[in-house]
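Sample 3 of the quickstart, ligand magnesium ion:
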Amino acid sequence: VNDCYDSLAGRSKSWKSLLYVPVLVEKYLDKALNSGAEAIILDLEDSVPLANKDKAREKLSDTINKLKGYDISLFVRVNAPWRLMIRDLEAAVLSGVTAIMCPKIKSAWHVKEISNVIHQLESERGITPGTIGLVAIVEDPESYFNLEQIAVADPRILWVSLGTEDLAAELGVDPSDEKGGLKYAKFQTVMANKKAGLEPVGLVSSMANFRDLERLKIIAEDSKKMGFVGATCIHPSQVPVINKAFSPSEEERKWALRVKNLFEESLSKGSASVSMDGSMIDTPVYKRAKNIIARSCIHQ
Ligand code: COA
Ligand code: MG
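Result:
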């Protein structure tokens, strides 16, 4: 079991699949609970029309109370404009919530200000300050250049994401073209997260058609190869595809265990490099293998 955790830098949880659920659609909740998603994102932002924002906020605490006994993490996506955001946070900072997802983040300062509001609400509500995480979503070119500072802006930050659709609209590129203009930005996002010790969630390109699960599989596998550890999605049928794509394959697990055993044996004999199937196994390869083992344990 120690192998499961010691290479994840103290973090005991990362998320492979997070399903967006518009708060006001009652029938989605059961479906979401049974979807296999590791987290539900209760959405107050783009899936809720402006006229219904109040109603959605009012519904939130009941919904969270209903869901918090289940083995599934609860995220809430709030709106970016301050007047909406403050009311959203008042409604969303509740015990049982894992994190607040914050769209259209501009800078480290922006994160700090939101974190301060969360801190005040936590204190008032008997929640240990710092308990509730924050996911920063960056959606425009100017903020993109602040990625590194945003990622380290606050200890609440779980990861920083790139808002694929909004950024593509700003750039005038097709977000579903995985070889297109967003690829470099996506990889930079992985690097900024890793530099800050965070595990990035995201897909290398957008899912144009959520019913095309074959394509989702390819995109999710490519995203895992790029360093992403999970993805958000909008429909329950996407969840199993994402869970599978971001889990280590049987082949990877077997490889990792062989590497670990062989390398440790070799170390005990005084050598830090050994050959396996014609490839050199040394310290970084051993580290990568231990990461795969850690992920296998967590994602079983
Ligand atoms: N969460 C939970 N259940 C969902 C769901 C979701 N996000 N999306 C669909 N379902 C349910 C449906 O209620 C339906 O259940 P039923 O068979 O018991 O009636 C089942 O899954 C199949 O749904 P389907 O008919 O294929 O889809 P739809 O046409 O009803 O809905 C969308 C399609 C896109 C409108 C819907 O998936 C949705 O609203 N997704 C979330 C959108 C969102 O949050 N966007 C903002 C984030 S970018
Ligand atoms: Mg957006």
